[in-house]
């Protein structure tokens, strides 16, 4: 499922030790790298808010449930944050093949520019070779 795959990439981005779950320490470290000033206690509270099984970790299932149960406004904010993760260096308002390749690399996956172009083409509604936010939301749904 496309939606699960998109969320899986988000989990992989934050999951530094590769155990399939995000600890509060991992969450805090990645958010600090992204320019957020976050205390460990705040990261713990954030994970606790969506932790469905009480293990104090954020799992793929927790993230999916959180996205599905959250209000539309929260979903939109979460999608914007995810979009910015893919658009982090260029800040051009689009996901380019280059920015997609770079994001995959950060998540430990190797994709060629051609593979990224094919992935983008699948959801590129206006045929410009880029993904805008609207196209990204369609991809993630």
How would you describe this protein?
- This is EF-hand domain-containing protein.
- It comes from Vicia faba.
- Residues 2-37, 38-73, 111-141 form the EF-hand domain.
- With 141 residues, the chain is mainly α.
- Helix 2 (24-33) packs across helix 3 and helix 6 packs across helix 7 (113-123).
- The mean pLDDT is 83.
- It has a two-stranded antiparallel ribbon with strand order 1-2.
- 62% of the residues lie in helices and 3% in strands.
What fraction of the residues are assigned to beta strands by DSSP?
under 5%
Strand order of the largest sheet: 1-2
Helix fraction bin: 55-70%
State the separation between the terminal residues, measured CA to CA. Answer: 9 Å
Gross morphology is: globular
Oligomer: single chain
Biggest β-sheet: count, sense, barrel?
2 strands, antiparallel
Order of helices and strands: HEHHEHHHHH
Structural class by secondary-structure content: mainly alpha
Which terms would index this structure?
mainly alpha, two-stranded antiparallel ribbon, globular
List the helices and strands and how they pair.
Layout (H helix, E strand, L loop, with lengths): L1 H13 L6 E2 L1 H10 L6 H11 L7 E2 H10 L2 H15 L10 H10 L6 H11 L9 H8 L1
Antiparallel strand pairs: 1-2
């Amino acid at each position: 499922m496309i939606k699960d795959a998109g969320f899986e990439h988000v989990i992989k981005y934050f999951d530094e030790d590769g155990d399939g779950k995000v600890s509060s320490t991992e969450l805090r470290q990645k958010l600090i790298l992204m320019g957020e000033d976050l205390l460990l206690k705040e990261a713990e509270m954030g994970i606790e808010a969506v932790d469905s099984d009480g293990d104090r970790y954020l799992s793929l299932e927790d993230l999916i449930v959180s996205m599905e149960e959250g209000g539309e406004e929260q979903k939109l904010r979460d999608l914007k944050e995810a979009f910015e993760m893919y658009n982090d260096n260029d800040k051009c308002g689009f996901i380019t093949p280059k920015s997609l390749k770079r994001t995959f690399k950060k998540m430990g996956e190797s994709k060629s520019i051609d593979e990224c172009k094919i992935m983008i083409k699948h959801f590129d509604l206006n045929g410009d070779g880029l993904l805008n936010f609207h196209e990204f939301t369609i991809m993630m749904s």
